[in-house]
Protein 1
Amino acid sequence: MNNKFMKYYYNIVIFFLILTGFGQMPIFKRFYIADIPGLGWLAEFYKTFFIHNLAATLLIVFIFYLLTTFLLNKKRVKLTMTGIVWVASLTGLLLTGILLTIKNFPINPYPPGFVVFLYLSHIALVMAFCMTALYSKILKKEYIIK
Amino acid sequence: MNISRRKFLKGGVVAAGTIAATAVPKTLKASESNTDETLVTLIDISKCIGCEACVEGCKDVNSGKYPKPKKPFPKMYPNRVPVMDWSDKQDVNDRLTPYNWVYIQSADVEVAGEEKELFIPRRCMHCKNPPCVKLCPWGAARQQDNGISRFDPDLCMGGSKCKGVCPWKIPERQTGVGIYLDVMPALAGNGVMFKCDRCYNRIAKGEMPACIEECPNDVQKIGKASDIIKEAKEIAKKTGGYLYGLEENGGTNTIYISPVPFEELNSKIEKGKGKPHFKKVGDAMENGNNIALAMIVAPLAGIAAAFGKFYKGMKADGGSDE
């Protein structure tokens, strides 16, 4: 897999994760976004649920590919502050996401208060993730010290 | 005709039944009220006389949980957001509403060559893996260890996603109540969702749900899942009855037993808003959860791809050295 492919892969997966993640809230129909031709599926909760899980699976593949590649090549990278926030928010999103995914199976693993905490953390982390990505893009801040 | 018949039944049979019911209070066994094992209800349709004692019992016991909306409601944007106000129609009892969590459906059918009107108490099915709980975006819906699913009125924003994902469209919304009023009432939320909570607070005290306690004909029976499922299957085998709720949506904690097939019952009942169907229902969460299972092998796939690339690179390097 070359770098260009990896970049497209990551961007597409993240785009669908964020889109379908917001689609877990009943907002796309309310605010006419699902009325745009081709976007009707955003108001169908089972479709957004499926695509969110699929994109999350593809993201996990990507992260483990990246980590293993770094380890095998014995590469050491130094993160900028932007990079640290990016890694921290992505790790937090993955952890809360996995815990929320476990909850969706026919088991009842957490107390209700913890489920609320997971949801709110997941939303706060995605906001932090999006802000970091925008900050990096607009101000051309790198994640890694080269 | 139906109304007068029901009123007649209410006046006569219920009075006698209530006396009998109050004489011997129905309670849950201690092992059932404190158990972590799922509680399942068996509803024998052939026993229901449509007296609506369950409907009234539910209202009496749960009226304290009903919404008390503040009016006028805040203006919501955009204009398409519907105001759902049942506060002036609290007496409606021919469908599910935020003020009516169980109602009686009826169907004219033929049982063993005889024309018969069947009555069916309808409420939340309390699914084993309830989509309303699992897909609520805030965690405002919860499932207790005993299988009861219910909504927290202090957390619910009234977005109605729970209704959208419910195979029977059970939850009903009341505008003008709940936490959304304190956040951004114009732009987010629209009240609180309401449905049967299986009288969870009564069950915790070892008491029966009101609809079961008030029933003069013992139409419903609640108990441990293993016992009730076994009993339902035995009755169905003995009477040639049909079961509903055992397989629907991956299994529910409410099992109906009917003397006629549910396809026939479904074609005869009045369906629509607040009036659930009796169709076959597949496991709504299955596809999403199946793809989630792939997350278990996703790390291996990533590691394998990285090793593959590394090995290929090494081979290429080795080849060029020679």
Protein 2
Amino acid sequence: MALQVVTANRIGDGTVVYLTRGGGWSERIADGQVSRSDEERDALMAVARAKAEIPEVVEPYLIDVVEEAGVVRPVRYREEIRAQGPPVHPAFGQQAAGG
Amino acid sequence: MYRYDEYDQTLVDERVRQFRGQVARRLAGELTEDEFKPLRLMNGLYLQLHAYMLRVAIPYGLLSAAQMRRLAHIARRYDRGYGHFTTRQNIQYNWPKLEDTPDILAELASVEMHAIQTSGNSFRNTTTDQYAGVAADEIEDPRVYCEIIRQWSTLHPEFSFLPRKFKIAVTGAPNDRAAVRLHDIGLIMRRGDAGETGFEVIVGGGQGRTPFVGPTIREFLPKKHLLSYLEAIMRVYNQLGRRDNLFKARIKILVHEAGAEKVTEMVEEEWRHIKDGALDLPAEEVERIRAHFAPPPYETLAAAQPAFEEKKRADGAFATWADTNLAAHKVPGYAIVNLSLKPVGGIPGDATADQMDAVADLAEHYSFGEIRVTHEQNLVLADVRRTDLHVLWRKLRDIGLATPNLGLVSDIIACPGLDYCGLANARSIPVAQRIGNRFADLKRQHDIGELKIKISGCINACGHHHVGHIGILGLERKGEEYYQITLGGSADQDAAIGKIIGPAFSSEDVVDAVETVVNTYVELRQNGERFIDTYRRVGKEPFKERLYAAA
């Protein structure tokens, strides 16, 4: 079973966010709730869709992640860039805060 | 330049009010994203990787100093202090907040601007030669017709739901600086048998995943028929363009599948019904619009400017810039000045708010208060006295806009790529930066000569890679960035689609590969050949051998 977290863009400013354990949203992927089974995945997406209707976020979706030494990282390069910010602007996004 | 009348102003003001209401309803949860998305896209608001993106229309790339200052103000107040000039001669902002966009649109409306039809399956910004109205080689000023097309194509009710987006470009000069053969419709002003001017009409060019150089469907169209003929083309496309497959929906596919001859027949048949009717351009209306583009009050100057020549002799850096970034002006004693938005290691097309403000000031002091945006992502001050060039150059140097690299290896078109864009498979900007750094030695750049490198981060080809002398296309393979190189493309009057040279290169190797291609050209060139000339003479094999010999 692939590990996954739910990501979306925040409604107001489009900032990339991740669904957290408490059912909130964080700009840090490290705070994201990791699903480890089909049931967990479906439950996370149900929460995210409900929040998209409020609307807190836009177009939530699942991404594959890996966990290395307790650190969660996206599998795809595209999602790594979304998580960190544009590489050409190191002062923007989470990369500025050291990840 | 064209100034809004009350209809134009009412239209954009009403649109701001409408969008303000739509945003409020969206934020209150009364509109879902599915409902809101088409509404925001009708106003140029995208959602990209990290944030919303707002694309603002700059009709045929022409800006007043006041408009440029407003763009700077928006960058500073609502964004992160910069904007990105695009290949459609528009500008886009990468970090606007949704709740701010109605205010941004209101700011734009206050200077006769908007973001309407910068997205969606509609007519996009009509583009033109950045030297329009001042080029020494021009037959007639195409901006008059760009403006007529703008008015006709803005919220045209019959064409508000086209099969796909639609791009028109017009040039008034035989040397094509507007890539007209790579457009859904391209128009080239020509002289008819009696010396009158009209249009050669090209249909079905384009880039993207299926690139075509567009065929000519009419050698000469008298000017008064412009709109009826365009409308006939659009009716044929609107009926027969494929709506079943997003990737086959552009008019180029219709032209390719049906054949140019058949499409011509259908267009001419449709035209027969509507020509000589309500769409005929009334001469007085054309003259009313032409008056907006009347030449500025030029001084009578001598063609030879000894003071300018003396400055060139005395100051080598100035001479290099003047020889590279100036173009011939039709009025004696004046020059067209290109402002490079491609500093070595910079982001192609980006300008800071401070640079925009400074350019607005310089335009007012030295160029009758107007600025043009080029499809190659640079800026132009079109009407500068030769005697002012040295002082202007020093001021441009102070704000980082005097890189003498126009048309050289570091004057690269690059799409935003995976740094920003949700569609991209790979990054584009860092490749442009690395190529710029590799060839940072300007003396070497000038020795290499004219060379157009264009980089796209996916097959949609926003970075025009198909028509780069050297084109670079970003791919994703097994989670890593790869780059495919094409050679021999061209966007000018000898338009051509580049050919894939071989297997793609890793991100690490791609700049070496570009350098190998350039070095191969330098070894093979004869008698002042440009890169593209040498390529056309020797073909791709010598380049291919050098690139893949080791493998």
Protein 3
Amino acid sequence: MQLEGRALSWRYGNGPWLFQNYSITIQPGEVVGLIGPSGCGKTTLGRLLAGYSKPLTGEVKVPGRARNHTGYDPVQLIFQHPERAVNPRWRMAKTLTEGWSPDTELLESLGIKEEWLQRYPNELSGGELQRCCIARALGPNTQFLIADEMTTMLDAVTQAQIWHTVLHHASVRQIGLLVISHDHALVSRICTRTLTFG
Amino acid sequence: MNRTSTLYHDRRHRRWNERSRTFISAILALILLASIGIGSWLLGSSGLSVQLENRNLAPSFLHLFGTDWLGRDMLSRTVKGLWLSIRVGLLGAACSVIIAAAMGLMAATLGQTADRIISWLIDVFLSVPHLVMLILIAFVCGGGLKGIAIGIMLTHWPSLARIIRAEALQLMSTDYVLVARKLGSSRFTIAMRHLAPHLLPQLLVGLLVLFPHAVLHEAAITFLGLGMSPHQPAIGIILSESMRYLSTGMWWLAVFPGLGLLLTVRAFDKLGNHLRQLVDPRHTHL
Amino acid sequence: MPLLEVQQLSIAFQQYTKGSRQQMVTVMEELDLAINEGEIVAVVGASGSGKSLLAHAIMGILPANAYISGSIRYNGEQLDEAKLKSLRGSEIALVPQSVSYLNPLIRVGKQLQTNKDSIEQHSERKGLFERFRLGEHVARLFPFQLSGGMARKVLVSTAALSRTRLIIADEPTPGMHPDDVAEALKQFKQLAAEGCAVLLITHDIEAAIRIADKVAVCYAGSIIEIAPASDFSGAGNELRHPYSQALWRALPQNGFIPISGTQPSMGLGLQGCLFADRCNRAVDACKVSRQESRQIRSGIVRCMHAT
């Protein structure tokens, strides 16, 4: 039941290889940190694992992912910029319930307030939006969560709050976490295992 | 916050905000449309008959817009012509927009094969001149309203479909649509819930651009004898005919029908602009 | 006299409530801030606390449905639209958040020039590229061809002309590699040493305290504390406001301790201290009236408990 990327490679066009034959496994309930300089392909690796693009070589094995990538994906990705990950014309209630209907308990634990649900994304701050994106991605079928610079744009208090909640849910539900970040302090604080990339 | 003074955003508090202005212009456009429609129904066809004793009369109380060289009442002709043109134009433009939206969305969501086929179709249709195509279709369908409407809807969609396709493809690669795929939304759901609302402004603009285009083509085809019968007063025919008589000083032949067309187009243009402002997220709160 | 002085700045947005009815939503209230020449002031705080709005208000680039009141003085003179127009891009420079603020279709070198440039500035820009070790060829690149670190240097170089007296940097560091952050910060420090006033807007407290002289902490649309950067150290006991302390203690390297609750939404017309419902020292008085700013230990704070 592990998330496995085997011998993955990626480059843009005919450019230099960002990574070649890179293999990675994440066990359920594990918190893996992926750290490296900007532009080294961390984000691309996250996207390959989450099924957003196909690796040029190798394969990504995910238990429960449909072959044609339809249906709710057991690997969910959280983006650095939440404002781009929500439809600007949708009220938050619609956005939150796109994949599943989060219960009030989860919303409360993430600090999502009732009154946000009737607002549009441009009326919420980045931190508030990111909480909503996380709630949206924590559906019952989520087995792995890839957090790509999830809290980079947020202030320290919100960052700590969000990570405490996410880590709690991940450990209760045995969700495997991949934390992509450039922040050594954060990664060494929350991760059980750290990979240096690039 | 009543103590707010504007510091360097010099905007006086406006009496009407964008939403009420949109509402008002929609009402005005509707009133115009309704009055032309009802007017053409009330006026009956008596004004269209040839009355040689009433030739070339300047505007008077009996004939508000004057009469033409065959003694036909210009008010009746103008109103009926506008109504006919609006119907043909709106029908043709609306159908083109629907086809364009469907094609654009399908090209963007149904995968590469569908995209290739649709792009090829667009290129084929664009490579044949509109008028040739229109003549062919109008000829096959037989003249009259039906032939023109079908002709217009089949020839005007490709240019808009191309824009819609490009826009939809761009939307397909936005983060939130990618997320929607991973949350299990089907292609159809994405096309309907994510793409279509975003494309609405483009479709509206498309409708407004196509509308006068359709009216013009309708006039052209009629002029060539393949469209409406010359007895039916289409605004395009009236205008082109009156050009010949302008030099003789009969200004009313062109002025009133021209003004009518201008007013109609302007009303819809204004409405379209207001709507576009409202659907633009940057202006939602003005 | 400070170079830039913001007094009692309030910003409100006009928004639709229902149908065509509109109301004013206050997003920033009575903000005071001053910057002297050669000084770096960092504004830190939660996202949505209004720190970017402050930059936009100073640059006059708020959206059209914003109404502002209060005064912004530059060099002792009221900064109005006409004045701003002549200063923007010459004496006052904005370092934007990312290269996405550049036109993707125009070569970098061409874009950096403004129509206010004379021959003198022209040659100065060339010198700047050398100083930032960018190389002549960079000027001929398009924005998308720049790497992250290069882009940052290019953006900073837009501000680094000698005629510039005030630099407003909006979130210049997030997502950057530590080496690049250090490089960018060094550039600001150097500009300040040459007499520039720098307003650094960031949520990265670490970066802020490394170069700033003073740090202003923003919360829910008001500045709740302005402290010397050296006060951000140890367990944060030198800090005056409970929110500043919470912010400091929530850093991964300082305990990673969150406090509960979220920043109140703006425009609710809340009474009393905006932090009261998250504060463990809040008393009844906190919930009734808002604290005025007061001076404590060479800092300014809006809290009645501060000592």
